[in-house]
Amino acid sequence: MAGSARYTVVVADDEDELREAVCTMIPWEEYGFCLVGSASNGLDALQLVEKYEPDLLLTDIRMPFISGIELARQVREVRPATNIAFLSGYDDFAYAQQAIQYNIISYMLKPLTIEGLGRELRVIREKIDAQYALFRKAVPPGGEQRLRAAAVMPLVLDEYAEPESEAQLGAWAREAGLLRDADDRPCYTVMVSVLLGRDGAGRTTPAFAASIDQLAAKYLRSVSFFSGGKVVTVLLGNQSDFEEYLHILADEIPQMAQRALDGRCRVGVSRMVHSLSGLHGAYREAVEALRQADGSEGGAQFIRDLAPAVRGGELLCQRALELLDGRYTDADLSLVSLSASLDVSPNHLSACIKKYAGDTFINLLIRRRMEAARELVTGTDLKLQEVARRCGYTDQHYFSYCFKKYCGESPNAMRRRLNAEKGGGGG
Q: Which CATH number does 7-136 carry?
């Protein structure tokens, strides 16, 4: 992204007057931003992030329905390249520190004047500029990282006729600094990335390896090197690290490449292996995943998503919608948990749902819950708290908000209207 370009921003605050003042009185273009949407609660803010993919989300930390911290976590799941700035009271500072891992770029204390917010927006703009500049011109690795890359490169690229013992490989890896000590026994995943220009021509350079390591450092240990027009990355971590962070990193790399480099990045990701001797097989899987990805688009392709049972995107979407239809009552249902049930990556499942169902997972989930809610509101005498619970909502106010947004009137108002139409009393 050129230095003169504007960054997109979504504003979220449940205080109507404050939100309107921020939206209308801030000269956004003067500070290098373009306001694309505003929301009064965390749910609407998340939907706006999915729709507009903004560079910045400016949000109150105390939000209805989805708290600022939970919003930050969910935003990282769908748009890890989006930075988040918190607006909040002094007493929430310690609370906000819980979200430091979720791309929090600023923390501003209320009350805040329009002038004060403007000054902070200039600082945020400079920070985002610096992020993209660092990604564009990442410093080549130093001596220690080069030593690790040199140690891991033959393990990844060479197919040994007579492999060394795992103990010997471990000793070499510790000597090179890849492993910390004899008790350091991580799992490994290999990721292969290529950068393409708008015309489809290859733009991958050795410097791109440093850019990927820079992003990966937020989530997992990594060693990247350039080979044959692509960047090969070995990621290290425990199984829970990979389950939580791998799909986020695989999304963030193409998102940053698009914003900072104006290019398309394709990423192939292997299965997880448990030994250094498995790195070559993992590398072959990552290359195969990259080869079979849609070359016309950027994004990540996981090898496990190419299994015959899940390869058909339309069939996978159908299976996902069937599962959603059966599990929408589960308050903890999420894209991540649904993808785990289908044994595919969240990235792949999200893309299939958008392509074949024409909407995002969260919108489809809300729609299904609201269809069920309308049936219960109009066809039963259940209390609204019970209706909410049966539709996957633990917060009755959140449920009522979603119901009114989807159906055009509150559940109580719908019952009263229907009873009046039938000639009965109020509901």
A: 3.40.50.2300
